[in-house]
Amino acid sequence: MITKVGMENKFESSGDRNRQERAIQFYCNIHNYLVDPLLKYKFEMTTKDDNESVDAHIYLDESKSPVACIEVKGVKGEYKSREKLPISVRKLQHLQQHQIIFHRQMPSEITIKTIVIWALDDGIAYVDLNDIVGTMKYFTMKNPRDTGFWDAEFVVNMDTSNENIKIKYFKFFAE
After folding, report:
1. Which end of the chain is flanked by fewer CB atoms within 10 Å, N or C?
2. Would the CA dihedral through 70, 71, 76, 78 be positive or negative?
3. 21 in helix, strand or coil?
4. pLDDT at position 135, please?
């Protein structure tokens, strides 16, 4: 399905959205964001109709006090086979924008997490926006789509073998 958001088309299938939601649920479980309407935290996936530039927000409570803003990037393959994890510069800018907006809404002692999650076949890798380190290059899809406004853009590649980069990886639990 293609949906227009501003000048760009979104090419996310329901399978893509399910993969994103699974990755966010897993992240929430790792960090004890107990995602249940009766408990303290909840998350909301943004929808294609929201014209949102990120994939999800995690809220402290029903008052919609933000705790985290998340962008999920689906990546084929297992973590151990990946030399680099890509994220578009445009998505990093969107996260930074949300970080600034949320920070202005909250008391200064509260830090809003802005997280990039890579949804891999075997688990998730994630990093805080403030810990992004990588090399930037201009990337073009092999077969750009006629309506794919962002099929060519600048991408930051994070080197998974660099021990100084704060990427965290968690393998999915056996199902």
Report:
1. C
2. negative
3. helix
4. 92
Hey, what are 144's tokens? 């750009």
- What is the span of the domain harbouring residue 44? 3-171
Residue 40 DSSP label: S
Kindly indicate the confidence band of residue 2, based on its pLDDT and cuts at 50, 70 and 90.
very low
Cβ-based neighbour number of residue 76 at 10 Å: 9
Phi/psi at 166 (nearest 5 deg)? -90, 45
Helix H or strand E encompassing 15: helix 14-30
Output the six-digit token pair for 77: 């393959």
- DSSP for 60-110? SSTT--EEEEEEEEE--S-GGG-SEEEEEHHHHHHHHHHHHHHHHHS-TT-
What CA–CA distance (Å, rounded) separates 141 from 120? Answer: 20
Q: Total domain count for the chain?
A: 1
Q: pLDDT of 126-139, one tens digit each? A: 999 999 999 999 87
